Amino acid sequence: MSGTLYIVATPIGNLGDLSQRASEIMSDVDFIAAEDTRVSRKLLEYLKIKKELVSYHEHNSKESGDKITSRILAGESCALVTDAGTPGISDPGERLISKCADLDINIVSIPGPCAAIAALVLSALPIGRFTFEGFLSTSKKSRFAHLDELKTEKRTMVFYEAPHKIKRTLNDMLTVFGDRRISISREITKIYEETIRLSLSEAVLLFEEKIPKGEYVLIVEGISESKDTQEDFNQVLEKATLYVSDGMSLMDAAKKAAEESGVSKNKLYNAILKGQQA
Ligand code: SAM
Which pLDDT value is given to residue 235? Predict the structure, then answer.
């Protein structure tokens, strides 16, 4: 009978956040698959756990994943840990989990810290619905394509970011999203933990001066319903009317302008119609 893969969340800074169950599972399994064995060895030393560590990271995921799953299929149990937080959230854990699922291996989650969730609740923004976006690409083209896709997103958005890219990311977000609220959390659960809640334009100004240090999560407000103000609406309507003058059908013009702005298509359609009848 095959063994089990345990997805074990580890601290994102403060070691006190490791759960009792996570510790017990790491003691009980046959081996631990770790993103960086040096990082996980320190955690095991702190917990006084002696256990075989197997390296599993982005660059050896195929070969190491095959070995790990063969061992689990032969009956061994494995704890999957990454450098920090919940394996699978913007780290190589995702591939191993999917491979185990494909092989019908039993998978158990040992939940715990996750920077995205910690930053979301710290943001004080509406978090009833949110979307996790992970890291933006380093390629300008892909980064802008990603941000463009989110221009009319209503849900609160979560981004991970490295300190040396923060300034550029904030500028790009302001360019694409326009001004809106953002919460920036860094070094959550660590000594220099800090959360600042401000507008994107204020954040851009702040980081002209501030030197970013540590690990960051950016929580960005979705397009606000209040964006659909009369003034904004009139601008979008003007654009849609121009599309009609350029030869587009009324429905297509309303649809295009709605997609570009996030304004309701039906509302636009009715307003263009009303304008034509006036
Ligand atoms: N699996 C992890 C999780 O559950 O959050 C995330 C792994 S991802 C490779 C690392 C990114 O998570 C960092 O670049 C940073 O954006 C975010 N992060 C991790 N720890 C953090 C912390 N203590 N404070 C703020 N952000 C953190």
Answer: 84
Q: Is the pLDDT of residue 55 over 80?
A: yes
201-248 residue pLDDT tens: 999 999 999 999 999 999 999 997 655 566 678 888 898 999 999 999
Separation of CA 160 and ligand 1 centre (Å): 7
Determine contact, residues 232/262, Cβ cutoff 8 Å.
no
Q: How far away, in angstroms, is 88 Cα from ligand 1 center?
A: 12
- Mean per-residue pLDDT, 104-131: 98
The angle formed by the CA atoms of residues 207, 116 and 144, to the nearest 5 degrees, is: 55
Both tokens of 79, joined, read 């704890």
Task: Supply the Cα-derived Rg of the chain in whole angstroms.
Answer: 24
**Centroid of ligand 1 to alpha carbon of 246 (angstroms):** 48
- Ligand 1, atom 2: nearest CA belongs to which residue? 85
DSSP state of 178: -
Cβ within 8 Å of residue 2, ≥6 positions away: 72, 73, 74, 75, 103, 104, 105, 106
Strands (E), the chain: 4-8, 31-34, 53-55, 78-81, 106-110, 130-135, 156-161, 181-186, 194-199, 216-220
